[in-house]
Amino acid sequence: MNIRKFAVATGILVIMLSAAGCHHKRPKNAGVVVPVPQLWEKGQKALRKGHTVTARRYFDEISLRNDAGKYKDKAAIATADSYYQEHNIASYAEAITRYQSFLAFHPTSTDAPYCQYMIGQAYLEEVETPDRDVTPAQKAREAFQNLLE
């Protein structure tokens, strides 16, 4: 009889703990779709403040939206800009990759010259001192030459 009471008590306890584990608060804005222009403004504001990771979250959300329209391309460039603004070798490399990706898909865009220019700038930023590898300087020259062409 004791074993039976123990089994019932254990069963009730397991059910209570399971139910308690399933209960959680919903975020205040759950299910609310933020308009794309508002996401763009929030991303730009974060970028101006130097919060590059936060800005990228907004730009990534725009990139994933089907209703982004003109903001989708702008978000792709802004994401590359956010990497450029981090000012380190790894982020310059990521920015270059993002700008090149944009150019590959949108070679005739009105933003293409800006992206080509930023590729050159990022390569120039990678040039640390004259006694280092000259590859970034050569690539910067090539990027600016492509811009002129």
The biggest sheet amounts to: none
The computed structural class is: mainly alpha
What is the count of DSSP helices, taking H or I runs of 4+ residues?
A: 7
Helix content: over 70%
Radius of gyration equals: 25 Å
Mean pLDDT, rounded to whole units? Answer: 83
How much of the polypeptide forms β-strand, as a percent range?
under 5%
How many β-strand stretches?
0
Shape: elongated
Low confidence ranges: none
- H-E order: HHHHHHH
Distance between the termini: 91 Å
What is the element layout, followed by pairings?
Blueprint (H helix, E strand, L loop, with lengths): L1 H21 L13 H13 L3 H13 L5 H15 L4 H17 L6 H15 L8 H14 L1
Helix pairs in contact: 2-3, 2-4, 3-4, 4-5, 5-6, 6-7
Structure, described:
It is a single chain. The chain is mainly α. The protein has seven helices and no strands. Helix 2 runs parallel beside helix 4 and helix 5 runs antiparallel to helix 6 (112-126). The radius of gyration is 25 Å and the shape is elongated.
Outline:
By secondary structure, the protein is mainly α. The protein contains seven helices and no strands.
Task: Describe the structure using short key phrases.
single chain; 149 residues; mainly alpha; 7 helices; 72% helix; elongated
